[in-house]
Amino acid sequence: MSGRALFEAWQAGAERCADAFAQADPKERLKWLGPDMSALSSITARQMETWAHGQEVFDLLGVERQEQDRIRNIAHLGVSTYGWTFLNRKEPVPEPAPFVELTGPSGAVWTWNDPQADNLVRGSAVEFAQVVTQVRNIADTSLETQGASAARWMAIAQCFAGPAETPPAKGARHKA
Question: Residue 4 and residue 18: Cα distance in Å, rounded?
Fold first, then answer.
């Protein structure tokens, strides 16, 4: 399949998936290609994957995506997988987790973890989501990091399951 037929098949499948999730117990464990996860975690993961791969399409087409504050779900997933990023690479998890302060598309400011002036990530929620989903290198964003733990995390961030992946090289992923 390609073109319109592929898009329509994807759209129909997405609607069936949404209907199934609407009926699921959020705590129900679901099987998939990776480790079992709750229905709620699976919904978030599917949203993240769709958003990240969608970003790749927007980049390829040279189109600026119009973001909304629902990007917060992906930012939350990115923050929640701080420890996973290190464990997946068989590295010790630096403690405490950095303070994260992100500005959503509406201008709303969202924060996670305890405030720490010397251990933080600050900036655009969209750019943060791009980094943790590995559609951008941290060097290609205006995100600010303070401290070794925050800098290391953003250099290797990975909010998706599977083996450790190397983030894209600086300048390798961008709008065409």
Answer: 21
Residue 7: give the domain boundaries: 3-46
| Domains contained in the chain, number | 2
Using one digit for the tens of pLDDT, what is the confidence trace for 28-72?
998 877 678 888 888 888 889 989 989 998 998 899 899 999 999
Same domain, 39 and 53: no
SS3 for 124? Answer: strand
Phi, psi angle pair for 140, to nearest 5°: -95, 15
Measured between its terminal Cα atoms, the distance across the chain in Å is: 25
Same domain, 55 and 119: yes
Cis peptide before 98 (omega within 30 of 0): no
Distance separating alpha carbons of residues 93 and 95, to the nearest angstrom: 6
Q: Are residues 87 and 165 in the same domain?
A: yes
Site of tokens 């399951």: 161
Contact 125, 117 (CB under 8 A): no
| pLDDT digit string, tens, across residues 16-27 | 988 988 999 989
> Which residue is listed with tokens 């791969």?
53
**Whether residue 57 sits in one domain with residue 38:** no
